[in-house]
Amino acid sequence: HYAEKCGLCIGCSPSPQDDLAPLELQFHSLDFRNVLHWKHPHKAVKNLTYSVQHKIYGDKEWTNSEHCQGIRLLECDLSQATSDPREWYYARVRSLSSEGFSSWVLSHRFYPQWETNFSPPQIKVTVTGRIISVQIRPPRTPLQGQRGSRIRVTKLQKLTFRIYLIHNDVEEEVYETDSCSKELVIEGLRPKTTYCLQAVSVTPRSGRKSLRSLSTCISTH
Description:
Blueprint: H1 2-5, E1 23-30, E2 33-39, E3 49-56, E4 63-71, E5 75-77, E6 89-97, E7 100-101, E8 105-106, H2 112-115, E9 122-128, E10 131-137, E11 140-144, E12 150-152, E13 160-167, E14 171-178, E15 183-186, E16 194-202, E17 216-219
Antiparallel strand pairs: 1-2, 2-5, 3-4, 3-6, 6-7, 6-8, 9-10, 10-15, 11-12, 13-14, 13-16, 16-17
């Protein structure tokens, strides 16, 4: 009766641990480097640590995310655990303080193939007379191949590369090549003229574009 008179609801108040649950879980993905980010809870507590788990959509069991148990960071690199770009994934995070564990907080359902952004390709430019040759190197994922080198994003995602040829900071021509072409040859240029080139990665299905690369400038002979 005392609880009713005083307006108390026994068992209804949130536990103090849930004041410590992490906030705003969000995957950020660039070149299939899939990193889960979150924010500190509103309640400030010293010595707060976080633990992360992940699973493939449809699986019943959660897996502890390696290197992300009892961490103080506000992020966890899940690239290896989410390495198949055609799978859907979930992650969840909880905090631990002297008061105990918070509840688990669930991420959105993450689909790498749709959600990753790409860097522009690297380009190496050489000139012969009035011909410019552009060597195109696709960005690389954090995943390692059999020989230990990092896998190119084009092994996991079809891309095209757009090369912008700029003259006098105004005139601009656009060339497009698929990811199988390692080199673009631009002919018929003006002699003794400086051209600058920038590159962009394009996802053909969605039309999403990367930022432009820094300019690489070269002069014809």
